[in-house]
Design brief:
Blueprint lengths: L1 E4 L23 E3 L9 E2 L18 H11 L8 E4 L4 H4 L5 H9 L4 H7 L5 H24 L1 E4 L20 H11 L16 E5 L6 H6 L6 E8 L12 E5 L5 H19 L3 E5 L17 H16 L5 E4 L8 H8 L1 H12 L3
Parallel strand pairs: 3-4, 3-5, 5-10, 6-7, 6-9, 7-8, 9-10
Antiparallel strand pairs: 1-8, 2-4
Helix pairs in contact: 1-10, 5-6, 8-9, 9-11
């Protein structure tokens, strides 16, 4: 296991109280949940788009995640929030104007399409914009309610001027930057002059190289990644804290690694918001993962992250991250683990 820090964070002995501040910002939502008691879940039917037959990306998992949560009565329809299509202006807070303009209009070279793994289409653009809107809405709701979960998101390989690895718009970076730049509401007392402090906890098996690059010189955003040492991307960026795990890592070692680092980061960096990428590709049955976590291990991981953050009174929004399998129904259930863990935390903590 390899660990590398980019910058030093000073310790702090005054963790936040377990209370959540209200915000006065309007939500970026088409539909606001009618249920104020249950865990907020963010979903849009247009999180999907058509792909060529036999394409290896499991696009069908997104509607199935919500379907299995409803089927198993983990959530109800009344808990579902529907995001808006995120604007080009919001995307430009991270991505270059030229990149966004070309992506939206379809002026994307074949080489760039091959790098992302997706053929360009209007449906793909729409899907990415709704997905990013979903992550932004989940974060906005979390700032109001303490915890919220999207049924998509985690496109952490996208850079300001290009896409990569099934990622075209970096939803985590857009959300973090937009909420830091937002001046419609005051930030908490722990924030820097630049806005809210955001901790991005990325537990996808692949390093969030795009996110790390975007925030490498932005002290108000801390990027924390636990990922497979020998997995994609081959040339990794430098996060604020990178922990690289060897192939074959199992539940116990993985969970110990999370427990070793997360509490100290929360107490020293003292974020106003946590964005949690709960990728399920560390699973032993994942087609691209190379680690050996079980369903139980993923559940324990998500439960630990959520409880540890919520206990400190820090709002947290979750995205589903990566997960790859030919059995899309089984994969969707695996992705729903974070929502099931969040539901348990929501009930136990009386949120």
């Amino acid at each position: 296991m390899k660990i590398s820090y980019m910058r030093r964070v000073l310790p702090c002995s005054f963790p936040k109280k377990p209370t959540f501040a209200s915000t006065c910002r309007a939500f970026h939502a088409e539909k606001v949940s009618a249920d104020s008691r249950g865990l907020p879940v963010v979903h849009h039917s247009r999180y999907v788009c058509d792909l060529p037959p036999g394409h290896r990306f499991p696009m069908g998992k997104f509607p199935r995640v919500l379907h299995c949560l409803l089927k198993d009565q983990i959530v109800s329809e009344q808990q579902v929030w529907t995001p808006e299509l995120v604007s080009e202006e919001v995307l430009n807070c991270v991505h270059t104007t030229e990149y966004v303009k070309n992506f939206v209009s379809g002026k994307v070279e074949e080489k760039a399409q091959r790098r992302t793994g997706f053929p360009w289409s209007k449906g793909l653009v729409r899907r990415c914009r709704y997905e990013t809107g979903g992550t932004l809405l989940a974060a906005e709701v979390a700032l109001e309610r303490g915890l919220a979960c999207s049924t998509a998101g985690g496109t952490h390989h996208a850079f300001p001027d290009r896409g990569s690895g099934f990622c075209l718009i970096n939803d985590l970076a857009v959300t973090a930057r937009y909420l830091r730049n937002s001046s419609s509401c005051p930030s908490s007392s722990s924030s820097t002059a630049g806005g809210r402090k955001v901790l991005i906890v990325d537990l996808d098996v692949h390093q969030g190289d795009g996110t790390a690059f975007i925030f490498k010189d932005e002290p108000g955003v801390f990027t924390f990644s636990i990922h497979g040492e020998k997995n994609f991307p081959l040339h990794k960026q430098r996060s604020d804290l990178d922990v690289s795990l060897p192939d074959g890592t199992e539940d116990r070692q993985y969970l110990s690694t999370v427990e070793e680092h997360l509490p100290g980061l929360l107490d020293s960096f003292r974020p106003d918001l946590v964005l949690y990428d709960a990728g399920v590709d560390p699973h032993t049955e994942d087609d691209l993962g190379r680690l050996r976590l079980t369903d139980t291990g993923l559940y324990q991981r998500d439960l630990y992250v959520l409880k540890t953050v919520v206990a400190r009174g820090i709002p947290i929004a979750t995205v589903i991250g990566g997960g790859y399998a030919s059995d899309v129904d089984k994969l969707a259930v695996r992705h729903s683990i974070v929502h099931r863990a969040a539901t348990q935390v929501w009930k136990e903590c009386g949120m």
